[in-house]
């Protein structure tokens, strides 16, 4: 099964809270015609039920709700693999040094329910610029035994995502595991997998839930670390635990 991503880019007004309005990469055109008054049933999700969790909830709410459910997710470090345009580096908070070594293909293990802020550097055509997105793990995947690090959750950020964030817009991606009964019969890699783009009035989490099983939410904005050291734990969501995943060097026999 392949993982796919939903994506949205929204302008964020300084007087309003930052809303994670996600959209998926197959553009949905909005009609300019007048519409009739909404019927209450219009707000029902698939299966004629209301969705309790929404994509615009504050970071951490959805992941914590998953921890309250069933399944082997407590204290499980889910492998995650970051990737992006050539030259881009990723790093995680690491003790008093704040961040470790920049890695163009960083892999780490993250706890389900945690919100992790990471750093992006080396952004094309933006010398010296840095971004500090967050990733929230809302579920795990179940690869064959012993292959957890071979099949991590891929978080692939493209150049458009980074440029939009530098322009002050909020980009939100919902990564989901495709439903094998409805998945596209195409061979793709995390780098070539296409996102599905929605209008900002659609809930990406709800759409992802209809198309598969959501496992992670990535929010990319232009927020920067605070200058006051006392505010750093809040900025980094309490520094949740994570573990590095070291990849074998090329040419080394397994």
What does this protein look like?
- It is built from four helices and twelve strands.
- It is α+β, with helices and mostly antiparallel strands and 254 residues long.
- The strands form three sheets. The chain has a six-stranded mixed beta sheet.
- It is globular and about 50 Å long.
- Keywords: Signal.
Offer a concise description of the structure.
The protein is α+β, with helices and mostly antiparallel strands. The chain contains four helices and twelve strands.
Keywords:
about 250 residues, alpha+beta, 6-stranded mixed sheet, 4-stranded mixed sheet
State the helical fraction.
10-25%
- Which stretches are poorly predicted, pLDDT < 50 over at least 5 residues? 12-50
- Counted up, domains total 1
Mean pLDDT: 75
According to DSSP, the number of beta strands is 12
Question: Whole-number radius of gyration?
Answer: 18 Å
Order of helices and strands: EHEEEEEEEHEEHEHE
What sort of overall outline do the alpha carbons produce when their principal axes are compared?
Answer: globular
Structural class: alpha+beta
Largest sheet geometry: 6 strands, mixed
End-to-end separation in angstroms reads: 25 Å
Q: Looking at the chains present, what oligomeric state does this protein adopt?
A: single chain
Strand content: 15-25%
Strand order of the largest sheet: 5-7-11-9-1-10
Q: Given the structure, what is the number of helices?
A: 4
Write the layout of secondary structure elements.
Blueprint: E1 3-11, H1 61-67, E2 77-83, E3 89-91, E4 107-111, E5 115-117, E6 119-121, E7 134-137, E8 153-156, H2 159-166, E9 169-178, E10 195-197, H3 204-211, E11 212-220, H4 232-235, E12 242-244
Parallel strand pairs: 1-10, 2-8
Antiparallel strand pairs: 1-9, 2-4, 3-6, 4-12, 5-7, 7-11, 9-11
